[in-house]
Automatic annotation (TrEMBL):
Gene3D superfamilies: 2.30.280.20. Residues 281-333 form the HNH nuclease domain. Residues 66-233 form the Restriction endonuclease AspBHI N-terminal domain. The lineage of its organism: Bacteria, Bacillati, Bacillota, Bacilli, Lactobacillales. It holds the Pfam family RE_AspBHI_N. This is HNH nuclease domain-containing protein.
Length: 388
């Protein structure tokens, strides 16, 4: 099952560094190039335990980032303190495809119906297929070797698309298809690899998992994507169809963690949008951002995906006015007058800074949602006009 695509999420660098990676979600930074957005999205923050166990300088070592800004391959290696003999030195690999308009000689192709990615290696000039600066073809050779899944060298692959307007889309976890690597010759007879991957778009990636990978720890099961567990426990399987079934067998549909992650990120984006328009509580003017809540006029639970992120469905309110609005004790009539419930006394109104003579012209665009609020949320509202 494919997750619904959200609108572009414009996040701050620290939000990008901490947010989960949700398949088919487009991320952008505030004044950031897409290489910086990708860099922030694949940054792993080292855990406190790891830093203290290894006596690391927090300032220098708590952020470990992916390398390089160009080319389709970015290998993230284990933290030097975690390296053990006989096991992998790689934490995870990031592969990217650039938007067609900007494409280089080798253009990648993603077939979304079949979750099938045709990816190209990174040789552009050499007669030796492995002679590339990012070692991409070398990694492809390793990834597509027969025993990669069972080897102690196995590492997950995260697939992203980069757009010319600096957006970055997280596509999913990439899995090599058996016998899916072939050597081709294209322009100027230069040899290169063409590689076929399955992309798992059912599982979101938690930053905590990337941290565990970086620290070389076997992570708690709850944060390891099911498709990755399935993949590394594969016995050699003959057909492509069987391997795909095996990888996806236990990870179909949106799991609860994915749904939660999606909700968190949608909510964060919604708040961000409202804060850009307005910096204070609509009712009382309080401007302490820690106390401001992005309140949905039509309640979150009753809103569809579009309504959940529509800024016209949002009011920025302080904690107390959010509660009053949420409980239906205050609302606004068709002329944007503040209306209050008769459950509140005159004394309450004074204490709560509720002035029913006030009009809020800025609510014009919110009337469709306010109509819903008046009809289904508001309780025992007294209105001076007949337009409630
Ligand atoms: Zn307020």
């Amino acid at each position: 099952m494919i997750l619904t695509t959200l609108k572009k999420l414009e996040l701050s660098t620290s939000e990008l560094q901490s947010c989960d990676l949700i398949p088919e979600t487009i991320y952008a930074g505030i004044n950031l190039k897409n290489s910086d957005v990708l860099h922030a999205l694949t940054t792993t923050k080292m855990s406190k335990n790891f830093i203290s166990e290894n006596k690391l300088d927090r300032k220098k070592n708590n952020l470990h980032t992916s390398t390089g800004t160009n080319g389709g391959f970015r290998m993230v290696n284990l933290a030097p303190q975690s390296k053990r003999s006989n096991s992998t030195e790689h934490a995870f690999l990031v592969i990217t495809s650039a938007e067609k308009a900007k494409a280089n000689i080798w253009s990648d192709d993603f077939d979304s119906g079949n979750h099938l990615l045709t990816y190209h290696g990174d040789n552009k000039a050499s007669q030796n297929i492995f002679n590339t600066p990012k070692k991409g073809n070398f990694y492809l050779d390793e990834i597509f070797s027969e025993n990669f899944a069972q080897s102690t060298q196995a590492f997950p692959i995260l697939y992203f698309k980069l757009f010319a307007d600096n957006r970055v889309e997280y596509m999913g976890l990439a899995y090599p298809i058996p016998n899916g690597l072939k050597s081709i010759r294209e322009k100027n007879n230069i040899p290169n690899y063409e590689a076929k991957f399955y992309i798992d778009q059912t599982t979101s990636i938690k930053k905590e998992w990337l941290t565990h990978l970086k620290e070389g720890k076997s992570a708690k099961n709850s944060i390891v994507p099911q498709s990755w567990s399935n993949f590394i426990h594969l016995k050699p399987i003959s057909s492509n169809k069987k391997i795909m079934n095996k990888i996806f067998s236990l990870s179909g549909g949106q799991n609860e963690a994915t749904v939660k992650a999606k909700e968190r990120i949608t909510q964060s984006q919604f708040r961000h949008t409202l804060l850009q328009k307005q910096h204070r509580c609509l009712v009382c003017g309080l401007d302490c951002s820690k106390l401001l809540i992005a309140s949905h006029i039509k309640p979150w639970a009753n809103s569809n995906d579009q309504e959940k992120i529509d800024s016209n469905n949002g009011l920025l309110l302080c904690a107390i006015h959010d509660k009053l609005f949420d409980k239906g004790l205050i609302s606004f009539d068709t002329h944007n007058h503040l209306c209050v419930s008769n459950l509140l006394t005159k004394k309450d109104l004074k204490i709560l800074h509720l002035d029913t003579s006030r009009t809020f012209a800025q609510l014009k665009g919110h009337q469709t949602y306010l109509q819903y609020h008046r009809q289904y949320v508001a309780k025992d509202i007294l209105s001076s006009s007949n337009d409630f």
